[in-house]
C-alpha cells in the first residue's frame, strides 16, 4: 500500500505548534502506533467554518481520502479498520468494546478532575481570538469564573489523585492498560495528561506514584514523540516538570 | 471432555443459601458464561481454617482437580485458559488486560461507593459468629461505627450515581461492557450490584437510568440465574425491589 494521505485538524494555542487537545492527543498517539503520518493542521475553537465540511464543530477531524471522520473514538475505529494490516490499536477487535469504557472513564471522570487544575492555564495559552469564546462557554458550564473554578488547588489535586485509584491499582499488576504493551486504552488516558502538560505547570502526579512511572513510559514511546512535543513554556531548567 | 468437578467456596450469610460476596458473584456469572457447574460451598468470614489449604483467607476459592485458585481475577484467568473451548470470558486473550481496568474500577471506586449504603445491612444478614468480626474490622477501616458510616443515605446515593457516570456514558453507545454481548467486564461490575441486592433494600438506581436497564439485562442472563438467587428478604410483594 502506498503511504496514505491523511489530514488531521488539531486544536492549537496562540502558538500554532502548541497542540494541546486531549482528544487530538489520543489520535496523535494512535497514528504513531500504526506508523502513520498525517498533515496536522492547526485549528482554533472559533474556526467553526474551517471544519464545517465535517458536519460538526469539534476536533479532531480526520480526512482520509474520501472519508471525513470526526470524534476521536470514531477516528480510532476508522484507523483500526482501514489499516488492519498495521499494529492493532485494540489488541483484538473484541477488545474495542471494553476499551471504550476506559475512554468513557477518561472523558467523564479524569477530564473534569484535571480541568479543575488547568482551566485558567488553558485560557492563557489560547489565541487571542479564542479567549473570549473559551471564557464565556466554560464560565457558563461551571457557573463560575475561571479564576474561581481553579481555586483551592490542593483540594483539586487531592481529588485528582484519588480519582486515579483504579489506574494505580491496575498498574500494580501490569505495565500498561493494554497489558505488556500500550494500546489505544492507554492513549485515551494519556491524552488527558498531555492536555495538562501542554498547557500548565501544575505537577499533577507525585514522582513516586506508579501512574507517574506509566506516564513516563508513554512519554518515551515512538522516540519520545509526546515528550518532545511543544508545550506551553519550554523553560530549559524545567523541561519535564 | 467429561464434566469437570469444580468446588467453589462462597461467602454466605446466616442463611447458608444467601451468597452475597461481589467477588464470588463475578465467578458465579463466569462459570455460567462457560456453561460450568460447581459444587458451591458456603463459607463464613471466620472460617479461616476451612480454606487454609488455599494459602490465604478470602473467598472465592476454586478447586479444579489439582488446581487451587484464589482471588476472583486469577480464577477468571484460570477458567479462561482451562476451558478455552467454551465461550470466552474476555472476547479475545488480548482483551483481558483492558478488562482488568474495569475490575479495578469496580473494586476501588464502585465497591466503596456502594459500601456506604449497605454496610450495616450486610452486618445484619451475617451469621451470628461473623458479626463481631465484621463490625470490628470494618469499624477500624472506616474509623467509625457502621451506623455512622451509612448515615446521610441521600448523600451517598447521589455520590454512587455520580460514580456511575462512565458506565452510563458507555451504555449510551453499546448494550454491554463486552459490546453486543456481556462478558467478564460486565460481571466485574454486576457483582457489586448483586452484593447490594442480596443484602439490602436500598434502591441504588433510578428506574430511568440506563444502568438500571443494563442491570435488568444481566439479571435475565442464564435463565434468570442472578434474579432467582436468594436475597436477604424474599418478600413476595417486593420481589425485584
TrEMBL record, chains A, B:
It comes from the Bacteria. The keyword Transferase applies. Residues 92-241 form the GST C-terminal domain. SUPFAM superfamilies: GST C-terminal domain-like, Thioredoxin-like. Residues 11-87 form the GST N-terminal domain. One of its GO terms (biological process) is glutathione metabolic process. InterPro entries: Glutathione-S-Trfase_C-like, Glutathione-S-Trfase_C_sf, Glutathione_S-Trfase_N, GST_UstS-like_C, Thioredoxin-like_sf. It holds the Pfam family GST_C_7. The keyword Transferase applies. Keywords: Transferase. This is Glutathione S-transferase. It comes from Labrys okinawensis. The lineage of its organism: Bacteria, Pseudomonadati, Pseudomonadota, Alphaproteobacteria, Hyphomicrobiales.
